[in-house]
Design a protein that fits this description.
Distance between the termini: 33 Å
Helix content: 55-70%
Order of helices and strands: HHHHHHEEHHHHH
Radius of gyration: 21 Å
Structural class: mainly alpha
Largest sheet: 2 strands, antiparallel
Strand content: under 5%
Strand order of the largest sheet: 1-2
Length: 345
């Protein structure tokens, strides 16, 4: 069953990151919409990832066939474009062309290919891939020991809090690694897993299913450093604040569980499109903004051109690169299953 609202959340997450980087690069509104606020979009992405993995897989038996399907599905969605961007960035950098991201040498390239570190927006992909492996532990628990999922999540979150989220990073024989990025992302994956685990079973009273809960999304701008009424260090250290985690979790819960599925703001062709291309929009928007900012245009026109170009490039990437490769991987898997079935006859 497709949860159409999730497409809207993906699109919103991508646009938060886009607007943040546009504000930082062009100094739009004196950078008030930037300053690291794109973190809130990435948090939504991480919660969505945990939610979908939990929702799609924890009810399935943990066996070889399902695990193989899980890894193929995850790999076909994330790896092709990521690898293309990483390798393209490395090649462009070698020719002094600043068209993607700065990957100046083989060691830094290996850090990306081994999912240990990432430049610019690429930093978020290693934690995503690493969580795919962590999720296997939850899947093993799910059949007969589902309570261990809650215990392990609570334990890890308490340990992270008491150890002040250890800043583990450096390089190994010149290959950079940044475990801190993964550590600080874990709570958001965990919240997504818990929500996904209960999406089918949690009964929401009809009087709570209201369209007005869509406006809970307005809480996200109130977390921005330039707008927030918060005066604690959560204002800047958003990844390390459980108060921020609470607010973002409440927003996610309100949209996914309380807003009716037919909400016109979350279920329409525009949000469907943005949701589908959100991954490529996330990975490719920043170089486009950088290039558009070089043009002699007003900042409002730069915004429109950057947004149109980013969505267009993301759509082309999704339609003619990501989707065909994913379909190819799935069709190869189907052929292998059919061949194995015939061999058993």
């Amino acid at each position: 069953m497709e949860i159409r609202k999730l497409n809207a959340l993906r699109g919103i997450a991508a646009m938060i990151v886009f607007i943040t980087h546009f504000s930082d690069i062009t100094n739009w509104f004196d950078g008030a919409l930037g300053g690291g606020s794109g973190a809130y979009g990435v948090m939504l992405f991480f919660m969505l990832s945990g939610f979908l993995m939990s929702y799609l897989y924890l009810e399935k038996a943990f066996n070889k066939e399902h695990v193989k399907h899980y890894f193929l599905a995850r790999a076909s969605r994330v790896l092709p474009l990521y690898l293309a961007v990483v390798l393209g960035s490395y090649l462009f950098t070698q020719f002094d062309q600043n068209l993607l991201y700065d990957i100046p040498n083989v060691n830094i390239l290996l850090g990306h290919l081994l999912f240990l570190d990432g430049a610019s927006v690429l930093w978020s992909i290693p934690p995503e891939v690493q969580f795919y492996l962590i999720f296997i532990i939850f899947w093993i628990f799910a059949k007969n020991r589902v309570g261990y999922i809650y215990v392990s999540i609570i334990t890890v979150m308490i340990v992270l809090f008491l150890t002040n989220f250890p800043r583990i990073s450096g390089d190994l024989n010149g290959i950079p690694y940044n475990v801190f990025n993964s550590i600080r992302s874990l709570p958001f994956f965990f919240i997504g897993v818990i929500f996904g685990l209960h999406y089918k079973s949690l009964v929401i009273p009809s009087y709570l299913k209201k369209h007005c809960f869509v406006f809970s999304l307005c809480l996200i701008p109130l977390l921005y450093p330039e707008f927030t009424p918060v005066t604690s260090d959560a204002k800047r250290k958003m990844w390390l604040s459980y108060e921020v985690l609470l607010v973002m979790s409440c927003v996610f819960f309100a949209v996914v569980f309380l807003v009716p599925d037919n909400n016109v703001l979350l279920a329409n062709k525009i949000t469907d499109l943005l949701g589908k291309v959100s991954y490529s929009l996330y990975l490719l928007h920043m170089p486009i903004i950088v290039q558009v900012n070089k043009l002699n245009l007003s900042i409002e026109i730069k915004l429109l051109v950057s947004m149109f170009a980013s969505v267009l490039v993301a759509y082309l990437s999704y339609s003619y690169f990501e989707k065909p490769i994913a379909n190819l991987i799935r069709s190869t898997k189907s052929r292998n299953i059919k061949n194995a079935t015939k061999a058993l006859r």
